[in-house]
Amino acid sequence: MTFLVVTGTGTEIGKTVVTAAVAAACPDRGVAVLKPAQTGLAPGEPGDAAEVARLAGGHVTAVELARFPDPLAPATAARRAGLPPVRPYEIADAAQKLATEHDLVLIEGAGGLLVRFDDEGSTLADAARLLAAPVLVVTPAGLGTLNTTALTSEALRTRGLECLGVVVGSMPAEPDLAARCNLADLPVAAGAPLLGAVPAGAGALEPADFRARARSWLAAELGGNRPAD
Asked: In sequence order, what are the residues at sequence separation of 6 or more whose Cβ sits closer than 8 angstroms to the Cβ of residue 136?
């Protein structure tokens, strides 16, 4: 696997921390993380790609294609900033160039799978199709996650894309009944295996501790040693 697209069922659910965990679980491989569109940050502020590299280690190259200051969907943020949007072919071209010097290229989306990157309606799914890349779906732990996970997985299938699996982006230390049951039900909703559960607050760990623990959160398909569900 050279390319892996990381998407989510929504925003602020742990995509960046999951991306960092996957990168940290592959310390013997050259890894690049590509953030096509970073929104909601001013120039000079560290973005999601930089955070992945900070947590995962020096074997990770961080690349950001575009930055828009408003915390909005990429198409809307680009329009408001008067800047050109990021197109799927640009994402694919950048990923392919990174693949010439890296063993694994992680492409982290913004928000969910079908968030628009331009006014023509292009999405992260279009970039995944150009790369023939599998897609990892990051999802919340609690009530409501089964529906959004099923919708995301269905959108992948209708576009002929592979859902590699699902990772819970922020698993509570003391999960409630819904979160506990969802661990068993998410693979059914997704039609794909549960490949990990990253504990809540993992992004606040010291990087060395994060790297030491990352493999325990992820299944072997992602470089970890957690049994797949």
From this structure: 4, 5, 6, 7, 18, 22, 164, 165, 166, 167, 195, 222
Give per-residue pLDDT as tens, 31-70. 999 999 999 998 889 999 999 999 999 899 999 999 999 9
Q: Nearest Cα to 168, choosing from 206, 130, 196?
A: 196
Binding site as annotated, residues for Mg(2+): 16, 48, 108
Angle, in degrees to the nearest 10, between helices 145-158 and 177-190: 10
Residue ranges for the binding site? 12-17, 39, 48, 108-111, 169-170, 199-201
Residue keyed to tokens 């069922």: 9
Catalytic: which of 3, 35, 50, 133? 35
Is 97 a catalytic site residue? no
81-137 pLDDT, tens digit per residue, is: 999 999 999 999 999 999 999 999 999 999 999 999 999 999 999 999 999 999 999
Q: Which residues are annotated as a binding site for substrate?
A: 39
Sheet with 60-68, side-by-side order of all strands = 60-68, 31-39, 104-112, 3-8, 135-139, 163-171, 194-199
Asked if 20 and 51 count as a contact pair (C-beta separation under 8 A), the reply is yes
**Predicted local confidence at residue 229, as pLDDT:** 62
Among 118, 133, 168, 159, smallest CA distance to 9 is for 168
Amino acid at 42: A
For 189-201, what is each residue's pLDDT tens digit? 999 999 999 999 9
